[in-house]
Structures are given as C-alpha cells and as structure tokens.
Amino acid sequence: MTATTSTGAAGLDVPARSRWFAVSAVALGTFLLVTAEQLPIGLLTPVGAALAVSEGAAGLMVTVPSVVAAVAAPVVPLLVGRLDRRILLVALMALMTLANLASALAPDYGLLIAARVLVGVAIGGFWAIAGGLAVRLVPAPLVPRATAIIFGGVGAANVFGVPLGSLIGGLADWRVAFGALSVLALGVLIALLAVLPPLTAARPVGLRRLAGQFRNPGVRAGIVATFLIVTGHFAAYTFIGPVLRDLSGVDARLVGPLLFGFGAAAVAGNFIAGAAVARRLHRTVLAIAAALGATVLLFPLSGVTVAGGVALLLVWGLVYGGVSTSLQTWMIRSAPDAVEEASALWVAVFNLAIGLGALAGGTIVDALPLRGVLWLAGVLVLLAGAAVWTARRDERLR
C-alpha cells in the first residue's frame, strides 16, 4: 500500500455515512474558497468608491489572492510537515474566517489588500490538501464520485456564491458581503471539526519529492494541460459579458441570468465528468479539451446571433464544468504514491493560470478585436488536448 493510501486507512475505518459527511464538508470548503476568491468581481465599484481607489486598483482584490494561492499551494504542505491534515484544514478555515472579517472591517485600501493576501494563503493551502482528500475518505472505486462532489463546490460558487455575494453587497454594503463570508467560513470550520476523521500524514511533503513530480510523464502532461485550459478559459471568460453584448447582441440586462445558466451547466458538467472519468479517464479529458476548444473557436463564427451565443455559452459551461474533477482525478491516477505533492503542484498551476489568463485576455482585447480573445482561448485549449494525447499509452490514465 502506498504512503498516501495508507495515511487514509484511518479515514476508511469511519462508517460510510460519516465519510460522505466528511466529503460534503470539504465540498463546502471549496465552495467558500471560490466564492471568497471571486466575490470582489461584483464589488469593484462600491469598494473603489468607498476607499477612494480606481476600479483597476480594486481589481487587485481578485488578482492578489490568485497569485498568493499559486505560491501557497506547494509551500503550505512543505511547511507543515506531518501535521494532521484535519488540523491543517481547520486552521486554514480559521484563517479564512479572520481574513474575511478583516476585509469587512478594513479602514483603508492597504489593509484590505493585506487581508486578501491572507485569503490567498487559505485558498492555496486548503485546496492543495482538499484536492487529493477523496483517496483518504472513501474506497478506491468511489474516489471519482467523491472528487466530483468536492469540486461541485466550485460550480456551486459560480452559480450561487458570487451572485449572492454581489446581491448582498448591492442591497446592503460591500462590508456586509465580506462579513457574510466570514460567518460562512466559521460554519465550515465547525463542520470540518465535527465530521473529518484524523488524517495524519505518514510522511511530510518534501521539496525533493515535490520537484520529482516533474519527472512523472502523467503529472507533466496534466500540469501542461491544466495551464493551457485554464489560461485559455479565463482569457475569454473574463470578457464574456462584452462578448455576449457586442458579438452576440444579447441585451445587457440578460447577461447576469445567462451567467447563472453557465454556472448551472457547469455544475451538471462536473458530475457528468465525475461519472465518465471513473470509466475512461484519458478519453474523458481528451474529449473535454476537444469540445471546449471547438466551442470557443465556434463562438466568433456561430455565436454572432442571440440564439447562437446563448447555446454556445451553455455548452461552454457544461464542458468546462468537468475540467476540475477530471484533471484532479488525472493527477491522483498519475501519482498514486504522491497525491499531496501532485495536487499541490496542480493547484499552484491552476491558480497561476487564472491570473495569467485574465491578464492575457485583457492584453488581447486592448490590442485586437473582441474575437481575438476567443481565437487565443480556443488555440490554447486545443494545444492542451495535444498534451493530453501524449499520455495516451499510460495505463494508469486509461
């Protein structure tokens, strides 16, 4: 038995119902992470007005946590050594609680950004550990389903978390929105304490083992595919509002409801992918890359009407919804003896790609017609498919 699975043996001694409660609590954690990371998108104007900064400067509330999370994902597991992962997740959720409370009370812009740095640490550390927890909480045949539930929190945040936070900020005050996040984080902390079993690490995550994952062809292909897919997606999706309005002719008042539909489709796609990867992992990831690339490339051609734009947006959400579950499962299968190390690298690349994607998209939009960002995204995602194809002979992924 590998070190990773053996560390999870204790978790498998817990009754089945308790294991699924634990999986659900971790899913609540991922819901909170994505909500906390993206919530400021809907609050840039009121925050900028209240703290006397531009909306561009306020946008650092989104960029800073993403970059910090990319660094924290491998660094936190390195620093904590053999610390019980249950204690670590609870501590990170406590940090999230305090950081969001500090955001709500921040008297000036500098302290608000400092609080967002702490949010990034919590996001990176929690996600790095949570991404590989399924193998320690449920038997091997149920790992894809448990992984899909854990990452269902990501889609749920896009559907409910971010719009709800923006609504609270609009109806009450942006500080109330951050305060509500703090209360939610405290609730998740209590849930984790109540249902997570002890998750003592049999060995610490070492720098040599972490760097050694780059010699694993499956991990390498997964990291490259993740970087290209996520960069491409966020390069285009960051500007989906202008694309729908200016390219598809959608009424500006309908953009919000349509993005809700995108998120709902993503939730469905997450669970469809979770079922598919249990049977055909490599083919599923390859199909996701091909379908996502084709959908984005079709947008400048077939998305020039309202009906075409709406249809392609929903397909986009359905396909992209399977990305997190399928690629996390890919990393678990590629490195069964080093799940934490592989997951930490994957989370770091994922968060870095979010920031780079938005930056690349902004550069393209400023220099080229709006269609240019869709072409860029489509090409990057298809290149990710080529990276996936290179691992076709790896038996662990087939």
UniProtKB/TrEMBL annotation:
State where the protein is found: Cell membrane
Q: Name one GO cellular component term.
A: plasma membrane
Question: InterPro entries of this UniProt entry?
Answer: MFS, MFS_dom, MFS_Efflux_Transporters, MFS_trans_sf
Tell me where the transmembrane regions lie. 20-36, 56-80, 87-107, 113-135, 147-168, 174-196, 217-240, 260-278, 285-304, 310-332, 344-367, 373-391
* Keyword entries, A-Z: Cell membrane, Membrane, Transmembrane, Transmembrane helix
- Which Pfam families does UniProt cross-reference here? MFS_1
Signal peptide start-end: none
GO MF assignments? transmembrane transporter activity
Domain Major facilitator superfamily (MFS) profile residue range list: 22-396
- Kindly give the PANTHER family that the UniProt entry links to this protein: CHLORAMPHENICOL EFFLUX PUMP RV0191, PURINE EFFLUX PUMP PBUE
- Name it: MFS transporter
Say which species the protein is native to.
Bailinhaonella thermotolerans
